Amino acid sequence: MSKRLLTGLQPSGNLHLGNYFGALKPFVDLYGDYDSHLMVVDYHALTTIKDATVLRSNIVDVVKDYLAAGVDPNKVILFKQSDVPEHTELAWIFECLVSVSFLELAHAYKDKLAKGLEANAGLFNYPMLMAADILLYDTDVVPVGKDQQQHVEYAREAANKFNLAYGETFVEPKEMILEGVGVVPGTDGAKMSKSYKNTIPLFGSKDEIAKAVMGIVTDSSGERPENVYAIHKLFKSDDELASLYEANKGSYKILKEALIEDIETLIAPMRDRRADITDDAVRDILRAGAEKARARAGAKMEEVRRKVGVTI
Ligand code: AMP
Ligand code: TRP
Hints:
single chain, mainly alpha, Rossmann fold, Tyrosyl-Transfer RNA Synthetase, 2 domains, two-stranded parallel ribbon, binds adenosine monophosphate, binds tryptophan
């Protein structure tokens, strides 16, 4: 039997090239080798998104993004967290097993406090909902970015605590850190990130991509425009780029135009595929996925309820 894999997607809107090379592409290259579950974590998103219209459209968008990037809904259980109430149910049981001081060590919570902000209780309990996400499906591997490593440790700890208290029930999952191509730099050379406003949109129009590329910061001191080259490397080998950059030394505009074309060659087919996916198709896929996920999660929860003593 193939090993079980599960990961969660934040419905956070507009993806950029960093997300593609750091998360979408590595996932698409990997999931077919496992019994895979891909879940939109809409209840996790409620810890930050307070606008129903935004949340609704972000959920649909992230599903379209993954389908366009190459996820085949027939080869993965694709669903959203809120459609499977067993997630929040199991989270409660874990919350009754772990201590407040243990949850206080979570980076996401500590960072919020360090910024002088008040964390909501949902954010505080976030790691236990994520533990439930993972453990409900007897997940072996959890592909995530490095920032999520601690959360997978929390899931192992929750499994451990439950198994100790009630007997062997949950598999201890392992993180699989998605390195992708490492850190994708933005138009200013720093890590590409929405919060730095240095992104190149993944599914933007050609004009939007061109505008972002033309805005890549260059200086005339070096041999070649390093910020352009660093992004170009994601699309072409060093060998291919060597002759292009040699032939166009100093012609930054030509090099940027070449980069725009190379981005377009990769993106255009995905963008076209994405445009053909209707909101109704997304709803149908999520509904079918939720049915499969509930069959698995429901069976697991029956065992859990029996073990903790609420089934009489
Ligand atoms: P974020 O919404 O910024 O948390 O990004 C979601 C995921 O995309 C992360 O877990 C990373 O795996 C990936 N990612 C985001 N930005 C970059 C980047 N600049 N380079 C590589 N991967 C990235
Ligand atoms: N916390 C993850 C993130 O911010 C999302 C997530 C929720 C997740 N549940 C999960 C990831 C379960 C992997 C497995 O990216």
